[in-house]
Amino acid sequence: MEENICPKCGAPLAEITETPTGRKIQRCSKGFWNPETKKSEGCEYVKWLVVEPKELDEKCPKCGAPLLLSITRFGKKMKKCSKGGWDKETKKATGCDYVEWINGTKEDLNELCPDCGAKLVLFTTSSGKKMKKCSTAGWDKEAKRATGCTYIEWLKPGEYSSAGEEFLPPEIN
Questions:
Q1: Which pTM does this prediction carry?
Q2: What CA–CA distance (Å, rounded) separates 159 from 154?
Q3: pLDDT tens digits along 86-116
Q4: pLDDT by residue (tens digit) across 3-43?
Q5: What is the DSSP secondary-structure string of 65-109?
Q6: Which of 88, 101, 127, 134 would give a disulfide with 113, using CB separation of 3.0 to 4.6 Å?
Q7: Distance in angstroms (rounded) separating the CA atoms of residues 164 and 3
């Protein structure tokens, strides 16, 4: 069987594309993703490809080796030491075990929470999605539940820009 032929319908496979989370896929040329219905249409065959780790310009704080940016099969991003590895037989880490999970970033806003009156923060997830949330919000890992104020407002792409971006003044007619 050829690698560039769909095993379901025999049509050629389309070019490789990257998902918003950084994973790479190759679809059947007779199928496509409909963002309005959030469903695949046509042939549903999708081939998920392994994303090779990218070397970063940073050094491991434990051993000084270069760090790699890896994406898990679920789309989570992490920095890990290039000297580290995994032994499948013993199911144990080998070499340097440094791993740093990449979470979102917070930016203070000059807005108050409509629920409790505390300041709001702009939170950007590791995949680039943005939300306004209360600065008192948190997560109790042991109890596995939210703490503080639960106000969250998810923003659509382009709905909010950070203060660091440049804006042109409106044109005066």
A1: 0.53
A2: 10
A3: 888 988 888 888 988 888 788 889 999 999 9
A4: 788 888 889 999 988 877 677 888 888 988 788 888 888 88
A5: PEEEEEE-TTS-EEEEETT-EEETTTTEEES---EEE---EEEEE
A6: 134
A7: 46
